[in-house]
Amino acid sequence: MGDALDKLLSPMRAAVERYQMIKPGDNIAVGLSGGKDSIILLALLKRLQRFYPSPFKLFAITLDPGFNGKNTDYTQITLLCENLDIPHIIKRTQLSEIIFDLRKESNPCSLCSRMRRGVLHKAAQEAGCNVVALGHHLDDAAQTLLMNMFASGTISCFSPVSVLTRRELRLIRPLIYLRQSSISSAVKKCGLPVVKSKCPVDGKTHRKQIENLILSLSPQYGNLSERLVGAMQKGHISGW
User: Fold this and answer.
1) Contact 189/4 with Cβ under 8 angstroms?
2) What one-character DSSP code corresponds to residue 35?
3) Is the pLDDT of residue 105 over 70?
4) How far apart are CA 21 and CA 18, in angstroms?
């Protein structure tokens, strides 16, 4: 498990230090969905915590959307948190009912994302945290850039670090130098538990379409995701 994580730790630390994501005394809430990205983020931050010069505390917060009107089983995720000595907070919600049953959203991802962020930010504050760590990686950044260009005609992306002044929270994305394929490989090698999403539109979203587009163009243009992120960095777009 150690070797697989160590290969990812160096690029994650590089991102953390370049964008000054972690400061001494931070209480960091990891948004732990149970997917591969958030699981790796939690494991890597725990490993970084052991030797990072700026001391910080970790908490894990999981939001259960309540798909199909049922509570999701996060037992294996809780056990992982216990093994890592990280408090695990589970917030049961009715997001699924609101989005799919009451509002019957035809394009539910945007509303779901906003609502989840609101619940997560509030839960982080209630836990005494001043930082929220999210599991977006390099491929997510490239996809978000194209999604914004195609959908709204704006050249923008999420920022590596952003500040919510109203809630006095800092949002950080330590995985932005990591590729999705490397994360998936490390999860398998380490045998980390993953909770598969039960979202009815999983794999059928606009993001998935953009992901497939990038994959189809990559044989011709090489590492397209890395080039898109590199272009954002050169242009200092959205804090990159």
Assistant:
1) yes
2) S
3) no
4) 8
Tell me if the pTM is above 0.90. Answer: yes
Name the residue range of residue 151's domain: 2-239
CA angle, 83 then 19 then 116, to 5°: 60
Number of domains in the chain: 1
Using the predicted structure, report yes or no on whether residue 120 has a pLDDT greater than 90: yes
Angle in degrees, 0-180, between the axes of helices 2-18 and 36-49, rounded to the nearest 10: 80
Alpha helices by DSSP H, the chain = 2-18, 36-49, 75-83, 95-96, 108-126, 138-152, 180-190, 206-221, 224-235
pLDDT more than 90, % of the chain: 78
The residues facing 88 across adjacent strands are: 60
Structure tokens at 52: 């990072």
**DSSP type of residue 21:** -
pLDDT classification of 220: cutoffs 50, 70, 90 = very high
CATH number at residue 187: 3.40.50.620
**In angstroms, what CA-CA distances link 178 with 106, 127, 170?**
32, 28, 21
Q: How far is CA 183 from the centre of its chain?
A: 12
